[in-house]
Every structure is written in structure tokens, then in C-alpha cells.
Amino acid sequence: MTSEVKKHVVVTFMVVGLETLALTISSFSASAEESLPPIDVVAQKTMPSPSDVLIEATERFDRARADLSPRSGANAYDLSHQAIERLPQGDNAPFDRIVLQMPGVTQDSMSGGGFHVRNEHANVQYRINGILLPDGVSGFGQILDPAFIGNLALIDGVLPSRYGLHTAGILDITTRSGLFDNGGDVSLYGGSYDSIMPRLSYGGTSGKTQYFAVGRFLSTSRGMDSLTIGHEAFHNESQQGRFFGYASSMIDDATRVSVITGLSINRYQIPNNPGQTPQYTAFGISDFNSLNLNENQVERNFYNVLSWQRSVGDINAELAFFSRYSNIHYSPDQIGDLLFNGVASNVFRDSLMNGVQGDAAWHAGPHTFRFGFQISGEYTRSINSNLLLPVDADGNAIDAPFTVGEAVQKTGFLGSGYVEDEWRLSDQLTLNAGLRFDQMNQYVSANQLSPRISLVYKPWAGSMFHIGYARYFTPPSQSLSAPVNTAAYANTTAAPEIDTQSPVRPERSHYFDAGFTQQLTPELSTGVDVYYKNARNLLDDGQFGQAYVMDTFNYARAYNTGVEFKANYQTENLRAYANFAWARQRATQIISNQYLFDADELAYINSHYVYTDHAQKITASAGASYLFEGTLFSLDLIYGSGLRSGFANTDSLSPYAQVNLGVSHEFNLAENGQARQPLTVRFDIINLFDHGYVLRDGSGIGVFAPQYGQRRSFYAGLSYKF
User: Fold this and answer.
1) Radius of gyration of the chain (CA)
2) Mean pLDDT highest for which of 31-40, 199-208, 462-471?
3) Could you give phi then psi for residue 82, rounded to 5 degrees?
4) What is the average pLDDT across 429-439?
5) Can you give the pLDDT at residue 30?
6) pTM, whole model, 2 decimals?
7) Which residues of 69-88 are buried (b: 16+ CB within 10 A; e: fewer)?
8) Which domain holds residue 478?
9) For position 279, which CATH number holds?
10) By three-state DSSP, how is residue 313 classified?
């Protein structure tokens, strides 16, 4: 993919139309009635079409698949495709921005992970149609395309035993239905920062097979969060391509096979910060304009899922194979990085993971027994080439650059199994109890048996109370945990102050959650939830160098507590919602990869509880949309009290609020009196009041550079269905 490419073409398939059979019986004339036995007029009978049969079977299999992914005892917040379309930008919005409209989700910079669920760093699991998408070496913020989402659910709290490994939240995606009517759409969207984003999608039905594909391309001069508060974007161009494909076929009345495939290839210029002063001299050069730095990063992700689903009587089962390859490559400005940072690091990391997942559910009276397993193998490489300067006995840099290279590779394995019983004690009371076992063999080997138990009580219509406990086990990302040969950097400008490098360990925690939801009216629902987490070996990531690549470390002990409120109002034309969260996460003692920290900061953290860098005290989101005679008006906002900053995260950044506005209209065009497919026109404003705010100020644990929120931007688009 090059910067000159401005669109994608999605290969479409020809489809077979549906067939209808009607039988009409006519009565005989009066004279014929005198010579023949009298007969009644036979009522007209219409046989169901093959398309109707396929739709009914698809819905039945979808319900069976949902039965394999229980939510009992957990919190679940759903956004349908219609709800996504009612947000400013609709499904043109970045995936991250949509997730920010859910309870307890905190905004962060791209280098900080994009967003956090309940103040956790990463630890979010992605599933498409119930199948796990394995981790890669970069975030999912730019890999998933909202156009294929039929329903997006955030599931958190005390999770049933099916869910493991990453447990801060499950982003459970169900692909769109109603996409198989032998048609699609083409759209063009763009605006501020030279943004242009064409998209093409198509779906159809052929016999017993349904398929859907969508491709999207983005070119923009604001690919990452800016390092300055102004409107200018210095050296920040990006080209991003994404593709998603889905197909399913009915083998027989009880069996369905599905295929999911997708990719993203994203190229970024690393933004520049003007007015920086070089700290070193290299190759005889000591003067360098920081606006002329030329750092670049490329991220590639490819994933595939093949699943076999069978539903017979009271038993539903699914077996799936999943695969993912991802890599990230940071290319430095050899001279510029060396002058400003004392090191120019060429960083490459990649990961290839393959695995098998099996799940089953058996309904036996008041009990629903579920059990399953997951096995995966991962091969990772971490390759660094660092251009350095030696230092003399007094620590002064010597202008004699040389290169230190490293290459670490590892094959690791994860294995999990679970059983659970969802027991309906009465119409009002349900108990869900289960056990999960996880085993990891990576840079360290460890395992854990994790009990889960929750109770759901529905005292009256429209109300639900839940309370539960879970034991969690979270392995570190293998691709981010590779050891470093710190001795190779002794007496150089890249030498760490601390030589200690203990291996990264899995996180273990106790989690408690309780909540109450109430349907006050048919239109209005509300809810409140409280949680407490006590963790050992809390996992955290940070950007400890100029490359936008994370490094992982552990805190010995940590706690995380919070409360969330939510309200939703829905009528045919009006949708409104509001979410509010208060949270606090604190931790102490760095027990792995200590070399990443300065000596004084490490000593302080080891003797104090400190806030994690992504801990934000207050987070809120709200929005409303109204449909009036074909015109949709939409508004949403996000609020944050500010992430942490300063030495050992002892300070916090200023509060901020961002308001976004959108309007769209659907024109039902007609030609020669015949209705045609609709044309949709939309206009959006991001950061309506042009509030400049800082997400990161360059200080804090694992924060390398400042990042600022997007300033006021204007976008417009056309979309035509065919």
C-alpha cells in the first residue's frame, strides 16, 4: 500500500434470486357442478421461499451461538448498528471513539492504548461472533471497522467462567444481519486534516450461503495525536487500509460453517514537536531542527477464523480455528533521534498465533451446563538495532556512533478449560457457578484454577440485581515481554540507571462486583454498579522510548475500585443516554523490567502506593439523537478529569470536555416514478467548541511524549446504497 492509493475495491459475487411457488384452485361452472361431485374452493397456499427458510435458519443458529456466550452475573452495555449510526460520524467514526460512549471507558492517546476500561491498561478481549481474536503486537483501535458491526457489547464485572485471559472487559461483536439482500453501499467521507475515506461494501445470498465484505481506506494528515495543542499537524500523515469479510453456509438443518477474515495495514509518520534542543553531537552535527525529524511506523494485522457450529435438541456446540499475524516496525531518524535522545532505535516486533477453541451448552431442566477449552501457540520475534554514542568516565557522550543489535524469539503456549452451571433456582433467582483453569508457558510458566460465582435476582418486572466474585488470571503479552540484554548498553547513552530485569509475570486478582438495573418506563432504563479488585503482579505497559511500541512490567500489589451510573432513553425517533464513572487504581513496587525506570522514581514507587498513569478519577459520556422527517440530528460528548502526570504519577492533568455534532439526511430518490435506493448525506463537527486539551504532557510513568486531543474539525460524506 502506498500513499497514492486512495480507494479499495471489494470483489463481489453474483447472486441467485429467490423463488416463489403459488397454487390457485378455481371453482367449476354451475353446469359442471350438476355432473360432478361438489367440491369446496381450496384456499390459496404459499410455500415459504428458500430465502425465508435461510433467514429463519440463520436466526436460529445465531440464537444458539448467543447461548454459548452467557452474560449472567456480568454487566453488559450494548450498542446496535442503528445506535452507532446515530452517533456523530456514524460508522465512519474510529472504533475507539465509539467505545468511549460506553460506561467506565476512559480516553487516552494512541501511544497510551487509545482507551481504558475501568482504569485497566489493555486487558481487553475482542470476540467476533463469540470467537476470540488473539492478541497481536499493536492495538485494535485501527483494525476493526464499525461498518460490519451488528451489535457491540461491552461485558465487564464478574464474568462467567467462559471468559478468561483478558478480563477488564469483553468487546463482543456480532456481525450485521440483513446484509445478504444482494446489495451494498459505496461512500466517500472526509474533511479536515486533508482526510479522505472511501468505502465499499457488498453482501448477498447464494443458495445456502450468505456473505458480506467491506473495505475502507483512509488518508489523513492527522494520523496520530498531535504533540502540540494547535491546529497544525507537523509530520503526521497516515494511510490506513482495512478489510473485513464474512461468509456462512448451512451444511444441513443442524450444522453451519462460518468464515471470518480481515486485515489492516496502517502507515504513520510520527508527529514532530517544534522547538526542541538537541542534547548530543553525532557525526559532527549538533544543530538540528526538530520539525525536520523523519520517524515512521508501520503496523500490519491479518486475522482469520473458521468455525463449525451444530445445534441438536438441547445441545449447542461450536468448534473454531483462529489465526492472527501482526507486526510493527518503527524506523527512526538516524541522526535526529541520536541528537535528541542519544539513541536511534530501529524496532521490529511480530507475532504469529494459531489456536483452537471449543464451546458447548446443554440445557437440562433448570440447569444450563456449559464447558469448553482453548489452546493456542504463539511465535514472537523482537528485533532491535540501536545506534548509540559511547560515554567517558564522567558520563559525557563521545561523538563515535556505533550500533548494538538484539534479536529475541520465543514460542509460547496458552491452554484453558472451563465448566459452569447456570442454575435457575426460580423465576426470579439464578445462580451461575463455574471453574476455569489456565496454563501459560512463555518466558515464564504459571497456572491458576479460578472459581467464579454470581447471583442474579429479579424481584419485580423490569428490575435486576446482581452480585458476584471472580478469581482472574491474566498472562502478559508475549510479544511485549521479551528480555533485553542491558549489559550490551553499559557505558553508552542508552545505559539504564538500574540493571535489574526480573521477568514479567502473569497477573492474579480477586474481583468483586454488584449492581442494580431498573426499567423505569418502557423508554427509560437506569443502572448502577460498584466493583473492587485486589491484584498481585498487576500488569501495565508504557512507552519508554521514541518508538510507539509498548514495554510491559508488573506492580507487586494493586487495588482498583469504582462506581458507574448509566441511563438510556429510547423512542422511535429519540435516543438519549448518559454515563458517569468514578474510579481509582493505585499500585506499589515494580517487580519486573526494573531497568525501564530511573533510580529515584523506582525507589519512590517501591515505598509508596502510586496512581497508575492511566488512572482517571472521573469519566463521563452522554449523547442524544433525534430523527425528524428523514433528517437525523446527533450530539455526543466525553468528559475526563485528566490522566496522571509528573514524577511517579503524583500529579494529574487538567479536566477536559469534547462535544461532537452531526446531521444526516436520507434521500429516497425516484426515477420515472419508481423508488430507488437511498442516498445519505451527512455533516459532522468534532470538538464543536474547539477546546484544546492535553491527554499526556510527556511526564508520568511510561509516558515518552506529550499528546493533545483533536481540535475542531469538519467532515462531510455521501453514501449510496445499491
Assistant:
1) 28
2) 462-471
3) -65, -40
4) 97
5) 35
6) 0.89
7) bbbbbbbebebebebbbbbb
8) 22-721
9) 2.40.170.20
10) coil
